[in-house]
């Protein structure tokens, strides 16, 4: 059964990054060790909070297909400006992130997401050749783009 729900994905950071943030907080707290218990606890709480805000911010990027547009991070592109969507597996995604990449492309890149979708931009006024979107479910995103393009046409 194909869902008619619009596509919405948040590119959250992996769980082990949160564990690294807590461990980094303990490392920062060790710096305050000579100053006593209260500075240690304050440094621990403050540093874990700062690391948490940074991770939450970095992992808050979203990819959505809504109201005739693809919204990827800060970019909002009408579906009429988009062409073919190509699903990239892990090795192809890595290739398009590195040696195959075009510097003019729009890239919503998250290194911890191994798969991606490459969407051609067909608008002659736009110098962007394609969009590279890190996504955990590129097949679903491609299908959602196809469904939305049919509805928009």
Automatic annotation (TrEMBL):
Domain of life: Bacteria
Any Pfam family the entry gives: DUF3093
Transmembrane segments: 15-33, 40-59
Name recorded for this polypeptide: DUF3093 domain-containing protein
InterPro entries membership: DUF3093
UniProt keyword terms in alphabetical order: Membrane, Transmembrane, Transmembrane helix
